[in-house]
Design brief:
It is built from seven helices and five strands. It is of the alpha/beta class and about 180 residues long. The two termini are about 30 Å apart.
C-alpha cells in the first residue's frame, strides 16, 4: 500500500547513501553489519525471520533501537572493525500486523503505525501522480519540515505513544 513510497522523501532528505535496507534474516544471520552506519535503517518485510523466532529478533534488535550504547561495533567485510555512533533510526515494514513482530506490553522502543488500506484501494494513476508530485518539488517538504520542527520539548528517553495497532501486536503475542 505504499510503505516504501512513503519513505522515499525521507531517503531523499537524509541522502540515499544514509538510508539502508536490510532483511530480518540478513540482520540476524550475517556477521557483516555495515548498515548500522546509516542514519535510517529500514528492516524490510518483518515476517521472514530465518532460523530465529520473533522473540529472539526483538532481543537482537534492542542494541539498534535505543541508546545506550552510544556506539556500536561495525564489521565490514575486508575492513578492520570500528565503532560508529548509535544514531541510526530503525524503521520496520511489514504486511503482517499480528504475526510479523513481537512486542511486549512494556516496550519503550517502538511506535506502531498501521493502515487497513489494501493494494486494491489505489489506482495505478494514484502512484504515477504521487511520484510526479515528489519529483516536482515535494521531496523538499520533508527536509523543510524537519528543519523547522522545534525539538525543545522532545524527550528522547520517553516512550512513544502506544497506538491501537501496538496493542493488537502485543495482544496477539500473549500466551
Amino acid at each position: 500500500i505504499g510503505k516504501d513510497t512513503l519513505l522515499v522523501p525521507l531517503s531523499e532528505a537524509v541522502g540515499p547513501w544514509n538510508m539502508r535496507d536490510v532483511s530480518p534474516k540478513n540482520i540476524t544471520e550475517e556477521k557483516w553489519n555495515d548498515y548500522i552506519a546509516s542514519v535510517v535503517l529500514r528492516v524490510n518485510e518483518v515476517k521472514d525471520l530465518g532460523d530465529i523466532d520473533r522473540y529472539e529478533f526483538y532481543e537482537h534488535m534492542k542494541i539498534y533501537s535505543a541508546s545506550p550504547p552510544d556506539v556500536i561495533r561495525c564489521q565490514e567485510k575486508y575492513i578492520r572493525h570500528y565503532d560508529v555512533l548509535n544514531v541510526c533510526g530503525v524503521i520496520y515494514t511489514t504486511n503482517h500486523k499480528t504475526d510479523g513482530m513481537y512486542l511486549p506490553p512494556d516496550d519503550r522502543r517502538h511506535y506502531v503505525a498501521w493502515s487497513n488500506l489494501e493494494k486494491t484501494d489505489f489506482t495505478e494513476e494514484y502512484w504515477v501522480a504521487m511520484y510526479a508530485w515528489y519529483e516536482n518539488g515535494a521531496y523538499g517538504h520533508v527536509p523543510a519540515y524537519l528543519a523547522s520542527y522545534h525539538l525543545s520539548k522532545f524527550n528522547a528517553k520517553a516512550p512513544p505513544p502506544k497506538t491501537q495497532a501496538f496493542w493488537e501486536i502485543v495482544n496477539a503475542n500473549r500466551s
